[in-house]
Amino acid sequence: MILKCSFLFPFQPWCRCITTVYNYFVVTNFFWMFVEGCYLHTAIVMTYSTDKLRKWVFLFIGWCIPCPIIIAWAIGKLYYENEHWKQLVHEIEKYGR
Protein backbone atom coordinates (compact mmCIF):
# COMPACT_ATOMS: atom_id res chain seq x y z
CA MET A 1 0.00 0.00 0.00
CA ILE A 2 1.19 3.49 -0.75
CA LEU A 3 0.29 6.45 1.40
CA LYS A 4 -1.14 9.43 -0.46
CA CYS A 5 1.21 12.07 0.93
CA SER A 6 2.57 12.90 -2.52
CA PHE A 7 -0.31 15.24 -3.30
CA LEU A 8 1.12 17.76 -0.81
CA PHE A 9 4.78 17.62 -1.79
CA PRO A 10 5.44 15.27 -4.71
CA PHE A 11 8.73 13.39 -4.88
CA GLN A 12 9.84 14.45 -1.41
CA PRO A 13 12.29 12.06 0.31
CA TRP A 14 10.40 12.22 3.61
CA CYS A 15 7.23 11.05 1.89
CA ARG A 16 9.05 8.04 0.48
CA CYS A 17 10.60 7.29 3.88
CA ILE A 18 7.25 7.44 5.64
CA THR A 19 5.72 5.16 3.02
CA THR A 20 8.61 2.70 3.37
CA VAL A 21 8.34 2.60 7.17
CA TYR A 22 4.56 2.19 6.92
CA ASN A 23 4.93 -0.73 4.52
CA TYR A 24 7.59 -2.29 6.77
CA PHE A 25 5.13 -2.35 9.65
CA VAL A 26 2.40 -3.78 7.42
CA VAL A 27 4.72 -6.64 6.39
CA THR A 28 5.84 -7.23 9.98
CA ASN A 29 2.19 -7.50 10.96
CA PHE A 30 1.78 -10.47 8.62
CA PHE A 31 5.02 -12.05 9.78
CA TRP A 32 3.94 -11.71 13.43
CA MET A 33 0.69 -13.51 12.61
CA PHE A 34 2.82 -16.27 11.10
CA VAL A 35 5.09 -16.31 14.17
CA GLU A 36 2.10 -16.51 16.49
CA GLY A 37 0.79 -19.52 14.59
CA CYS A 38 4.22 -21.19 14.71
CA TYR A 39 4.52 -20.47 18.42
CA LEU A 40 1.08 -21.89 19.21
CA HIS A 41 1.75 -24.98 17.09
CA THR A 42 5.11 -25.54 18.75
CA ALA A 43 3.65 -24.98 22.21
CA ILE A 44 0.95 -27.58 21.56
CA VAL A 45 3.31 -30.12 20.00
CA MET A 46 5.92 -29.65 22.72
CA THR A 47 3.43 -29.44 25.60
CA TYR A 48 5.74 -30.15 28.50
CA SER A 49 8.92 -28.61 27.17
CA THR A 50 7.99 -25.04 26.24
CA ASP A 51 11.09 -23.81 28.04
CA LYS A 52 13.11 -25.19 25.11
CA LEU A 53 11.45 -22.79 22.67
CA ARG A 54 13.90 -20.39 21.11
CA LYS A 55 12.14 -17.07 21.44
CA TRP A 56 14.96 -15.23 19.67
CA VAL A 57 14.10 -17.20 16.51
CA PHE A 58 10.55 -15.88 16.66
CA LEU A 59 11.82 -12.35 17.23
CA PHE A 60 14.15 -12.71 14.26
CA ILE A 61 11.36 -13.95 12.00
CA GLY A 62 8.96 -11.23 13.14
CA TRP A 63 11.29 -8.22 12.86
CA CYS A 64 14.25 -9.13 10.65
CA ILE A 65 12.82 -11.23 7.81
CA PRO A 66 10.63 -8.33 6.55
CA CYS A 67 13.72 -6.08 6.21
CA PRO A 68 15.10 -7.54 2.95
CA ILE A 69 11.60 -7.61 1.49
CA ILE A 70 11.05 -3.93 2.21
CA ILE A 71 14.57 -2.97 1.11
CA ALA A 72 14.00 -4.70 -2.25
CA TRP A 73 10.60 -2.99 -2.54
CA ALA A 74 12.09 0.43 -1.72
CA ILE A 75 14.90 0.02 -4.25
CA GLY A 76 12.40 -1.03 -6.88
CA LYS A 77 10.19 1.96 -6.13
CA LEU A 78 13.20 4.29 -6.15
CA TYR A 79 14.36 3.24 -9.61
CA TYR A 80 11.15 2.33 -11.40
CA GLU A 81 8.41 4.57 -9.98
CA ASN A 82 9.85 7.74 -11.48
CA GLU A 83 10.32 6.07 -14.86
CA HIS A 84 6.62 5.28 -15.02
CA TRP A 85 5.65 8.87 -14.31
CA LYS A 86 8.19 10.25 -16.78
CA GLN A 87 6.79 7.97 -19.48
CA LEU A 88 3.21 8.94 -18.61
CA VAL A 89 3.99 12.66 -18.76
CA HIS A 90 5.80 12.18 -22.06
CA GLU A 91 2.80 10.35 -23.56
CA ILE A 92 0.39 13.06 -22.35
CA GLU A 93 2.59 15.76 -23.87
CA LYS A 94 2.94 13.81 -27.10
CA TYR A 95 -0.67 12.80 -27.67
CA GLY A 96 -2.47 15.47 -25.64
CA ARG A 97 -5.17 14.72 -23.17
Question: What's the short version?
Answer:
It is found in: Membrane. By secondary structure, the protein is mainly α.
Overview of the molecule:
The protein is an all-alpha fold. It has one domain (about 15-95). It has three helices and no strands. The chain is rod-shaped and about 70 Å long. About 5% of the residues are buried.
Query: Would you tell me the structural class of the helices and strands?
Result: mainly alpha
- Per DSSP E runs of 2 or more residues, the count of β-strands stands at 0
Distance between the termini: 28 Å
Q: What is the 3D form? A: rod-shaped
Largest sheet: none
Mean pLDDT figure: 79
Q: Proportion of β residues?
A: under 5%
Helix count, per DSSP? Answer: 3
Number of domains: 1
Low-pLDDT segments: none
Radius of gyration: 20 Å
Transmembrane segments: 30-49, 56-76
Subcellular location: Membrane
GO molecular function, one term: G protein-coupled peptide receptor activity
Keywords: Membrane, Transmembrane, Transmembrane helix
Main traits of this protein?
G protein-coupled peptide receptor activity, corticotropin-releasing hormone receptor activity, mainly alpha, 97 residues
Topology:
Layout: H1 13-45, H2 55-64, H3 66-95
